[in-house]
Design a protein that fits this description.
This protein is α+β, with helices and mostly antiparallel strands and 449 residues long. The protein has 13 helices and 22 strands. It binds adenosine monophosphate and glycine. Glycine binds next to loops.
């Protein structure tokens, strides 16, 4: 049981992590580096604002000064910068993958290579270097001849925004030069995948290098606008659990996706310790892996963590110290009911967001019992908060089923406003919460949770 934990990051996912860990039995203090003014308001949470998560030395120093027993790394960029390696080298238990293992997220081409070696079902895909425009075009035509559309992905970190899901062969062909232009040479620049159809699922597991324990599954909503239209974003809302992925199905995915990937990574000498996030499409032919992330999802974490039935810290500490117990459960126990999280985004997102708009209604939303996690806010001189990023808040409602959780989230989100605020109004709605097989027709989807 860790009593002092350092969480690295300062967005909505880290707000949810700090809130969850600080509320667990035996935890005296959660330190968040750099955190934010809003995160600091949580009980038993303190922020050290002068730490740069991308500078491993400054995080190691903060961990030593605060005498923490565990460091949990939230975002991907510090992992890609080797933060977990630096902490391990300093003898500080850290839950988060090494730079080499985080390549599962930082390179889509590497992720496909590992998935293929591990025998994990993915979308058909090929990687192309900056000089391979003709081969990329030929692959798009080949997909098209087989009746498939293409998805173009920039290789490398792009915060979910380097992906274009195309609607025609012509559109895909037109886009190839824009993906290759800035990446000359022989490194992978572009991954082209067959476009899959089906609902998406985010299934995240706590991993100790060998063993995975599943968190409740969640569904993100990547497109900006209702009905899954508009540009891709980092995620406009999420809900959990998934009525179309029961515990047995979750366990099958853990055994056919997460465990083989862990084995392949260990075989390569780069074992994966941390949250292994599988982004999946549930196709008619079964689940297919779209991407791996080396961290919790954002906004998935904001709905998953409030649903956990017990403490998270002891599992993370065990994994960080070298091993989850052999009798660990396959699935972390969850509370009954559901959680729905609605992201409130600034004007301009996913392009350049407008900053500094005063946010109204935060107190009212919390008074309704909603959880309000801050992703991009800044304290205002006279009190209150202003917008300070693309995704600004995630408002999370909970209830005995998806319908009531959605109502709670909607009501609280309705209380919050600022000029130009953007949000979706269909998160967790009937289109995304299917009625599981066996439930008689006529029962509203929201009642099926
Ligand atoms: P990624 O960053 O790879 O998860 O892609 C971002 C989003 O693009 C995903 O969450 C999907 O909504 C969509 N997407 C990516 N790859 C595919 C694919 N092969 N087929 C259909 N949609 C996809
Ligand atoms: N919400 C998707 C992600 O965190 O990558």
């Amino acid at each position: 049981m860790p009593t002092r934990i350092l969480v690295v990051g300062g967005g909505g996912r880290e707000h949810a992590l700090a809130w969850k860990l600080a509320g667990e039995p035996g935890v005296n203090e959660v330190i968040v580096a750099p955190g934010s003014e809003a995160i600091e308001l949580e009980p038993r949470v303190r922020c050290v604002r002068d730490v740069d998560p991308l500078d491993p030395a400054s995080v190691v120093k903060a961990a030593r000064v605060a005498a923490v027993e565990l460091v949990v790394v939230g975002p991907e960029a510090p992992l890609a910068a080797g933060l977990a390696d630096a902490l391990r080298a300093a003898g500080i238990p850290v839950f988060g993958p090494s730079k080499a293992a985080a390549m599962l997220e930082t390179s889509k081409a590497f992720c496909h290579e590992v998935a293929a070696a591990a025998g994990v079902a993915t979308a058909r895909a090929r990687a192309f270097t900056g000089g391979e425009a003709a081969a990329a075009e030929a692959f798009i035509r080949e997909l098209s001849a087989g009746g498939a559309l293409a998805v173009l992905k920039a290789d490398g970190l792009a915060a979910g925004k380097g992906v274009i899901v195309t609607d025609s062969e012509e559109q895909a062909l037109d886009l190839v030069p824009s993906f290759l232009r800035h990446r000359p040479g022989d490194r992978p620049a572009l991954v082209i995948e067959e476009r899959l159809a089906g609902p998406e699922a985010s299934l995240i597991a706590i991993c100790d290098g060998r063993r995975p324990i599943a968190l409740p599954a969640a569904r993100d909503h990547k497109r900006l606008c209702d009905g899954d239209t508009g540009p891709n974003t980092g995620g406009m809302g999420a809900f959990s659990p998934l009525p179309d992925l029961d515990p047995a199905a979750v366990e099958r995915i853990i055994e056919t996706v997460h465990r083989p990937i862990l084995m392949e990574m260990a075989r390569r000498g780069t074992p994966f310790h941390g949250f292994l996030y599988a982004g999946l499409v549930l196709t008619a032919d079964g689940p297919r892996l779209l991407e791996c992330n080396a961290r919790l999802g954002d906004p998935e974490a904001q709905v998953i963590l409030p649903l956990l039935g017990g403490a998270l810290g002891p599992w993370l500490l065990a994994a960080a110290r070298g091993g989850l117990p052999a009798d660990a459960p396959a699935l972390l126990p969850a509370l009954p009911g559901a959680a729905v999280g609605i992201v409130l985004a600034a004007r301009g997102y996913p392009g350049e967001p407008r900053r500094g708009d005063p946010i109204e209604g935060l107190g009212a939303a919390r008074a309704m019992g909603a959880l309000v996690f801050h992703a991009g806010t800044v304290g205002r001189p006279g009190g209150g908060f202003g917008t300070n990023g693309g995704r600004v808040l995630a408002v999370v409602g909970r209830g005995p089923d998806h319908g009531s959780a959605r109502e709670a989230a909607e009501r609280a989100a309705d209380a919050i406003d600022w000029p130009g605020m953007q949000r979706r109004r269909d998160i967790g709605g009937p289109r995304q919460v299917p009625v599981p097989a066996g439930v008689p027709a006529g029962v509203p989807a929201g009642a099926a949770g």
